[in-house]
Amino acid sequence: MAPRRQRAPRSELKNTAYEIFIGILSILSIVNLVLMYALASDPALQLVLSVMNGLFSVIFLGDFIYRISTAPSATHYFFRGFGWADLLASLPFAQLKILRIFRLLRVYRLMRDLGPRTVWTTLIHDRANSALMTLLLMGILVLQFGSLAILAVEEDAEGSNIASASDALWYTVVTISTVGYGDQFPVTNAGRLIGALIIIVGVGIFGTFTGYLANLFLGPSRSEEGADAAADAPTEPDTADAARTTTDAATQGIAAGAVSGAVATGAAAGVAAAGAADEPAADAADDREARVRALLAQSEAAMAEVRRLLAADR
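Above: the chain sequence. Below: its structure as tokens.
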């Protein structure tokens, strides 16, 4: 009976790539608080930042639920692991978003415990999670700063059709996904340059993400890889079959020696073949084939000797 696979121990800290992803989003959300005060004179840019902060709130709320449901002790995480701060910081209130700094303390603790070299090595070896977190982070960064940049350039341009926050967000989403409906497009040179950068990044994001999904759903699982490796491994021959084969080979060797009159040769061949029965049952197939070929060669030599004796009697 195969041993049961042990589950990974529960921990408040998750894998390295995920913790870094949440930490960078926490920094970005705090930066957005500063930008909202800096761009207070432009309602459209304020709306873009508000939409992004709403997206961050949803992500952080999901992160809180994920952590408290997988923590070794939900009570310890909530009261002593700053779970209360994670919950309050995920609420859509600007005054509480400063509590997201506690998430940075968690990332700092991870970096301190593992060390920069170990963190880098972990990210390199855990390429699947690292790639997924990088894609998500790049998508969020392009969505926010691409929308802000294209709106700042096109908002007051003559003949522009990107004049509101919804226009900028829609254009960025459509461009990142490489759909390109054409209902929104930049009319300034700076806007076209920003659009070209969004297209290039969008192609890389969706191309890599498509490859990740294809490998995830269509690639072999670890259990299948283990089964294939076990199937490719050489199998041990059956003991009874091996003994039967070697016994038949011994009989053929003695008979060949008797026919040819070379009793010593035949007996030696029989002893050599019979001795193979004492070998382990795990002899390779090429060794058995070599013994069979040797016996056939001895039989041919015996038949040639018989023909020579018959010709001499005549």
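The CA atoms of residues 28 and 34 lie 10 Å apart.
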